[in-house]
Amino acid sequence: MINPFVYFLFFLKASLFSTGGFSNLPSLHQDLLANGWAKETYFGQSIAIGQISPGPNGLWVICLGYLSYGYPGAALALLAITLPALLVLFVSAGYTRIEQQTWVQGLMRGISLAVCGILLTVVWSIIHQPGVDWRGWLIAAAAAGVGATGRVHLLLILAFAAGVGLLLYR
Amino acid sequence: MKLQQAAPDAWRLFRIWASIGLQSFGGGASTTFLIRRAFITKNGWLNEEEMQRFWNLSVFTPGINLVALCVLIGKKLGGGLGVFLSLVGFLIPSATITCLLTVGFTVVESIPAIQAMLRGVAPATGGIMLLVGLSFARPLTLVIYKEGVIKLILSAAIIVGCVLTIVVFKVAVILVVLVSALLGVLFFTPRRIAISSEEGTL
Fold it and tell me: For residue B134, what is the nearest residue in chain A, using CA coordinates?
């Protein structure tokens, strides 16, 4: 039985201790699986649906919320990713006082480098989902290659990948 | 370049953010493009420096950077009401569609063809995520490249370190960000005050 309050706190914690739309994945993965409130497959499914649907990437947690806890789960997930963003108003107030300091530039550089690393770990966790074999790796490489040209719309790439999946795995 | 124009009313903000939310597919890059077009290029409500500053602040903030950016732009152009309506416009329509798509998915997920398609889509999203990471790293790399080989190697080492500590040693992400920020202060603080328009280019 899911405790809505604890469930919300899991999502809020994951969002508060993350940066960007996907780095909350490891924390949610740990907490929800430990309580038996989500299945491993939910994560891969959520990210795929999140990519197909509009809005910021971070909305993948709405899918995770719905899959694990229905409409209340989706609503709680939305609230949990919205609230931390309001902290930017406090950050903004403090930042005007310190932005002239040279160490702030160093700090921003360090954070930017960490974000690069975190994005790479998300790539890793996506292609490490159950059901992704060596053919999946090829699909990932092809999607990155085609996407890098910047000439094909991302939705078309995903549609094509769906077609390839249909041919390979049915 | 356009001059700054009078701020839009809060409902216009709502409509603009709703259209940005509904048009952004495939995440980060396309959304930032739409945001820049709506607020800098098309209407001139923000200039490049403000956008850069807002972006840096958003990266500092926990959670989804684009949502924090939405808060800052809403605040600047419409105050408290602007923040509220920008957030509602950006998130509610797109979140509703996301949720309905998930509902649709649970109806058809047991169909083998759907499962096969999803097995193709999932790794493709991984490939696209790699591009998101690279597009974030590219402007950064160009700046660091000019600073010399030592800093380039140091930067690469920090990135690799972040990946390893998260994937192999399962260290909490926030801890990794904090340590990396500290290393940034130690190794990348300029000796003299320089123009700070280089980081995390939007």
Answer: A116
Chain B residue numbers touching A95 (CB-CB < 8 A): 56-57, 60
DSSP string, A122-135: HHHHHHTSTT--HH
pTM of the model: 0.77
Q: What is the identity of the amino acid at B188?
A: F
Contact A137, B123 (CB under 8 A): yes
Q: Which amino acid is at A136?
A: G
Whether B143 shows a pLDDT value over 70: the answer reads yes
What is the DSSP code (8-state) at residue A19?
B
pLDDT band at B1 (very low <50, low <70, confident <90, very high): very low
Pick among B128, B146, B189 to test the A interface (most A CBs inside 10 A): B128
Helix (H, G, I), strand (E, B), or coil: what is residue B10?
A: helix
CA pseudo-torsion sign B19, B25, B28, B33: negative
Render pLDDT for B27-46 as a digit per residue (tens, 0 to 9).
666 788 889 889 988 888 99
Q: Which of B97, B102, B200 sits opposite A112 (nearest CB)?
A: B200
Residue of A nearest to B159 (CA): A117
Distance of CA A34 to the CA centre of its chain: 19
Buried b (16+ CB within 10 A) or exposed e, B42-60: ebebbeeebbbbbbbbbbb
